[in-house]
Amino acid sequence: MTKLLSVTLSTLALVCASLIFSGSTQAQADQQIKTEIQKKLGTNAKVRSVTPAPVSGLYEVLVGNDIFYTDASAKYLIQGEIIELTSGKNITEQRQADLNRIKWTDLNSANAFKTVRGNGTRQLAIFSDPNCGYCKRLEKSLQQLDNVTIYTYLIPILSADSIQKAKQIWCSADPNKTYIDWMVNGVAPSGKSDCSNPLDKNLTFAKTYGITGTPTLFFTDGSRFPGAVQVTDIEKKFASLK
After folding, report:
1. In what order do the strands lie in the sheet with 148-154?
2. What angle is formed at CA 209 by the lines to CA 33 and CA 216, rounded to 5 degrees?
3. Which residue, among 111, 138, 128, 114, has the nearest Cα to 211 in the 3D structure?
4. Is the separation of the CB atoms in 90 and 83 below 8 Å?
5. What's the farthest any 2 CA atoms get from each other in the chain?
6. Do residues 82 and 61 lie in contact, with contact meaning Cβ atoms separated by under 8 Å?
7. Mind listing the pLDDT tens digit for each residue in 59-115?
8. For 19-23, what is the mean pLDDT?
């Protein structure tokens, strides 16, 4: 019995050592590919990681938040999507969604103004620039939503005038009304712009989480929708969260 136990433990030790060696070898291969890809891309693009892709012989290359693929020799850079034919699952799209996901609790509601309609049970966060045409289109569409709480985070990234308008909106007596008056009704904000505001904090958050365009929407599961999303798509997302 003692001899059998000894043999079993020895076998387990060999298996563990083999797994550690295999993992180390894979990590070295990934690093070599990453180094080679970075060398070829130069300093204009930052390669965040290189990991084996779901398809044998391919590697996922993460540049910023964008997904590419390469071969083991780092000779080719492939731009496109991997789709599993048996299930129809878009593996690249799912991976991209996971990369773009945040924790809802990372959002600080004190840095946003809040709109509540109906019972307010459904929650949505929007990063917006007051001079963004797509943001204005989205806001007009959002007027159709009911039973929702919307947190609007101003990130003035388009121009100096965006900064001025964002400050005037935040400093107004009713930021939400002033924002909607401008975005939906075309009534420009006026008044003071020298109050304490969260704009710098919002811009820092946007940079940290790769929010490079407006509008950008987030749902309570952390998923991200960029652009002027259709209300029907927002409703579908809300339905999936139940």
Report:
1. 113-117, 148-154, 122-128, 216-219, 224-226
2. 120
3. 128
4. yes
5. 87
6. no
7. 999 897 789 999 999 999 999 999 999 999 999 988 888 888 899 999 999 999 999
8. 52
Is there a contact between 168 and 128 (Cβ–Cβ < 8 Å)? no
Has this prediction a pTM greater than 0.90?
Answer: no
Q: Which amino acid is present at 173?
A: A
For residue range 150-207, list pLDDT tens digits in order.
999 999 999 999 999 999 999 999 999 999 999 999 999 988 889 999 999 999 999 9
From residue 97, alpha-carbon distances to 51, 64, 67, 122, 223 in Å are: 17, 14, 11, 21, 7
Beta-carbon contacts of residue 229 (< 8 Å; ≥ 6 apart): 138, 215, 217
Helical ranges in 42-79 per DSSP H: none
Q: For the chain, which domains are there?
A: 2-100 (3.10.450.70), 104-240 (3.40.30.10)
Count the Cβ atoms, other than its own, within 10 Å of residue 241.
11
**Omega into 198 within 30° of 0, i.e. cis?**
no
Rounded to whole angstroms, the Cα distance separating 136 from 132 reads 6
Beta-carbon contacts of 156 under 8 Å, excluding residues fewer than 6 positions away, are 129, 130, 131, 162, 163, 165, 166, 199, 203
Strand 89-90 to strand 83-84: parallel, antiparallel, or no bridges (unpaired)? Answer: antiparallel
